[in-house]
Amino acid sequence: MSEVNLNGKSALVTGGSRGIGRAIVDALAVNGCSVVFTFVSSDQAAKEIEEEYASNGMKVYGYKADGSKQEEAESSVKFAADTTGSVDILVNNAGITKDNLLMRMNNQDFESVLSANLNSVFYYTKAASKYMMQKRWGRIINITSVVGLMGNAGQSNYAASKAGVIGFTKSIAKELASRNITANCIAPGFIETDMTAKLKPEQKDALLSLIPLRKFGQSNDIARIASFLCSDAAGYITGQTIAVDGGMTM
Ligand code: NAP
Questions:
Q1: Which of 9, 164, 203, 239 is surrounded by the most beta carbons within 10 Å?
Q2: Does pTM surpass 0.90?
Q3: Residues with Cβ within 6 A of ligand 1?
């Protein structure tokens, strides 16, 4: 990933303690970026990540914040700006699932998924874009899902949140373009992380049969695209949703 030069840039990645977010933190840091990542429960993992990068002379800092709460989202943006100098890059990655069929889904499961996956994107983007506007440069990357494009039985809450992120991203891409800020979505297909580890073998087999490349994706497949979208080479791409899904949605 050395073709992407992010020296001197500052990034904030939500949900960077595990899975896709963890890989994005690594891709940005390796390319020269100072990175603040958030987490909500993985205190020990966050500490170990910080120590690992510090021992290599790299600037990566964890911050505990529940992004579904506006004051915590805002305080993490402030922490990132105070610690690394600014927020040039925002990656809204944190997300949760609480699957159930419509008839069995209660209001709390619907609302908590919307809060964690969509409201948080609004809170973070509003707070972080102020720094980007001042600098007349910025990159916003929102991790949505193929489920936001296609829908999925048992995931009406998750699909609504991820489709909402796509509409939100297109709107802010139009609002912020004049300030040289781009906003794009990445829509992962099935990526092997803790989130997908809970699926049953028969569910995984059914999914695999829908993927033309006949394999599941890895977190690095998403991190490489995120890193590219942050680069100057991607400066003419905005308002897009890039599916990284082994061909699942083509
Ligand atoms: P994961 O392995 O479950 O990791 C989730 C991360 O988000 C963790 O770092 C977690 O922190 C953090 N997080 C969760 N809720 C949070 C909250 N309220 N505030 C702050 N941080 C929070 O998930 P993943 O598979 O890497 O997924 C990352 C993103 O990709 C999500 O938006 C997901 O919807 C999307 N996605 C994933 C797939 C897939 O196949 N895996 C497919 C499509 C889209 P803690 O470690 O502290 O709990």
A1: 9
A2: yes
A3: 14-21, 38-42, 66-68, 93-96, 116, 143, 145, 188, 190-191, 193-196
